[in-house]
């Protein structure tokens, strides 16, 4: 559990605020009707089991950093921040362009953020929420003043397009946020991050790392495709996200009624509904866009936050609760004053 003492301390230090957000999804839309032609599935099954109607799929020549770069440009333009002003770029992803260099370095080069230091973090679908906590620590200590945080994924490149249980769930995309301490804004009010590595086997990409380096065998065995035990992941996702959302609200001294919007990881509408039943609040507080994007892993929360902002659902001073869950397992929640 994040120690309360450090959160008290953080509350007295410069507080990170999101100046603006931006997002990008690839042009190609893959509908449930398209999937019906590819695997033994139906629009009816996908809609009732997940709530997903369509998802965006990147071009073969479009890498994660390309999507991240476009989202970054949009966020910087919205924030009125020049790339040279950035001290740091963090990219949260499980689908980096390559083993190394890190994806954030590619983004840096594309946008000309010559003064930034850059690295990726990997916390699966919790990546953006974990990154937000990381960014607030750098801003609190003064180690970085202006940070670009991106969640970006090309999940289509680790998807087995013959596996109906997985290929209907995911999509590609990127979202970005520019963070800085603003004198009159409270920004990030609380953050609680958790992990349980004992459950690493339930959601993973087994091939391509040092455990199973790429070989003819790993290729033949399908180890370069994501694996998931959907039912177990579902149960943990509901209990862990509900619990950590409560903790983040507690840490901020707030209740669910005090937040304007709740932005949960966009994996499955049934997961969002189950969290809603446990956490409370009104259905209209829960922002959902998974019907149009599917599960975009580390991009999911920021894609939703950016869309909510563009739809005018958040005004400065409103409070928003972000909550995510992913492989590892990793999960986390953060309350922000917008
Ligand atoms: O981002 C990280 C977090 N990820 C998640 O949160 C995902 C969590 N899990 C889930 O969202 C759900 O478990 C799924 C959507 C993946 C699956 O839903 P489910 O209600 O748990 O279905 P199931 O896996 O128990 O499968 C039910 C049936 C099976 O058939 P039988 O064994 O009952 O005959 C599956 O073979 O549905 C079948 N099935 C499908 N049928 C049509 C599985 N996928 C499909 C499909 N189309 N695409």
Distance between the termini: 25 Å
Ligand catalogue: oxa(dethia)-CoA
Largest sheet: 5 strands, mixed
How do the strands line up in the largest sheet? Answer: 1-7-6-4-5
Q: If helices are DSSP runs of H or I spanning 4 or more residues, what is the number of helices?
A: 12
CATH topology of the largest domain: Peroxisomal Thiolase, Chain A, domain 1
Helix content: 25-40%
Total strand segments: 13
Strand content: 15-25%
Order of helices and strands: HEEHHEHEHEHEHEEEHEHEHHHEE
Number of domains: 2
Rg, Å, rounded: 19 Å
Low-pLDDT windows of residues: none
Tertiary shape: globular
Name of the level-1 CATH class of the largest domain: Alpha Beta
CATH architecture group name of the largest domain: 3-Layer(aba) Sandwich
Structural class of the helix and strand makeup?
alpha/beta
Q: How would you name the CATH homologous superfamily of the largest domain?
A: Thiolase/Chalcone synthase
Mean pLDDT: 96
